[in-house]
């Protein structure tokens, strides 16, 4: 729709994680550094927490893409609805491990052999578990048992637990105290500040191919920042709606007025967590109705 009008090769503000649009603010770089330190120092357990939409997945994808496959072996588990046995089987599958039998003991022994082989080859094995706040206590206990696989000097596997702030509450449970005590590196993502919000918007516009200077005015960026409070996902929602409205008005600048009108329409729904698809349908109907009235 608006891509041709603004000179975009692709939409700049989709909420689907796209490595081409990765932007690391100061907060994200700090979290990235903590994760990398935990991995390289063989801390064993690392925890990454952050509110919905703050960029946890972006940081994790960036981290995994930066790990040299000659020195690291990595796997990502993003399905929290697993039993203990399913988790162990899933971990083995992600690392390409095929035990002779499909039993818990066989999976555990095969994983141990694999980790020893990688350690002997000088490689670090990294397991990332996303949305970990939804894991059942017995599954988290299975993860702790996996972390027990070690040599006399070193942890054989580095495990990153990533999730929403509720993960901290889960780990504070008395029955999970052994797991919590093993987490030696913890980092938390917080929303971006105003400066990073502006850089984030401009970065995505540049990557999408537009060369229109000042596409988002300074006043519009401030209003989007106040609405989103620096949360990338909400920034994307507001920016995409603002571009749609600017297109209907044939404006090459997202003005403070445009930003304010869009935010007024979407703020309540976005903060309540409505699905983006439904939100876009409702806003699109409203925008196109306005465009037809101007024709």
The CATH homologous superfamily of the largest domain? P-loop containing nucleotide triphosphate hydrolases
Tally of alpha and pi helices: 13
Query: What is the second-level CATH architecture of the largest domain?
Result: 3-Layer(aba) Sandwich
Give the total of beta strands.
5
Parts with pLDDT < 50 across at least 5 consecutive residues: 286-295
Task: Give the overall shape.
Answer: elongated
Helix coverage percent: 40-55%
Element string (H = helix, E = strand):
HHEHEHHEHEHHEHHHHH
Proportion of beta-strand residues: 5-15%
> Assembly state here?
single chain
First-to-last CA distance: 17 Å
The CATH topology name of the largest domain reads Rossmann fold
What is the topology?
Layout: H1 3-6, H2 26-40, E1 45-50, H3 56-66, E2 72-77, H4 84-94, H5 104-120, E3 124-129, H6 137-147, E4 157-163, H7 166-171, H8 177-182, E5 183-189, H9 194-207, H10 218-228, H11 232-248, H12 256-271, H13 276-294
Parallel strand pairs: 1-4, 1-5, 2-3, 3-4
Helix pairs in contact: 2-3, 4-5, 9-10, 10-11, 10-12, 11-12, 11-13
């Amino acid at each position: 729709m608006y891509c041709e009008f603004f000179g975009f090769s692709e939409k700049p503000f989709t909420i689907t994680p796209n490595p081409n649009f990765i932007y690391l603010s100061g907060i994200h770089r700090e979290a990235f550094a903590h994760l990398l330190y935990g991995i390289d120092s063989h801390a064993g357990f690392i925890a990454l927490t952050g509110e919905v939409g703050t960029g946890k997945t972006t940081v994790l994808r960036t981290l995994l893409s930066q790990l040299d496959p000659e020195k690291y072996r990595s796997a990502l588990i993003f399905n929290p609805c697993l039993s203990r046995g399913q988790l162990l089987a899933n971990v083995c599958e992600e690392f390409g491990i095929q035990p002779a039998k499909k039993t818990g003991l066989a999976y555990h022994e095969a994983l141990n052999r694999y980790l020893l082989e990688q350690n002997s080859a000088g490689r670090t094995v990294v397991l990332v578990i996303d949305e970990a706040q939804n894991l059942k206590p017995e599954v988290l206990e299975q993860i702790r048992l996996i972390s027990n696989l070690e040599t006399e000097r070193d942890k054989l596997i580095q495990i990153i637990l990533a999730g929403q702030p509720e993960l901290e509450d889960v780990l504070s449970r008395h029955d999970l105290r052994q797991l919590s005590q093993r987490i030696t590196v913890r980092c938390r993502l917080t929303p971006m500040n105003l400066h990073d919000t502006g850089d984030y918007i401009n970065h995505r516009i540049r990557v999408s191919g537009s060369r229109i200077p000042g596409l988002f005015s300074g006043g519009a960026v401030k209003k989007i920042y106040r609405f989103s409070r620096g949360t990338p996902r909400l920034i994307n929602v507001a920016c995409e709606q603002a571009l749609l409205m600017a297109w209907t008005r044939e404006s090459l600048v997202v003005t403070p007025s445009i930003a304010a009108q869009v935010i007024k329409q979407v703020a309540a729904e976005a903060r309540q967590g409505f699905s983006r698809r439904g939100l876009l349908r409702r806003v699109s109907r409203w925008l196109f109705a306005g465009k037809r009235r101007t024709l």
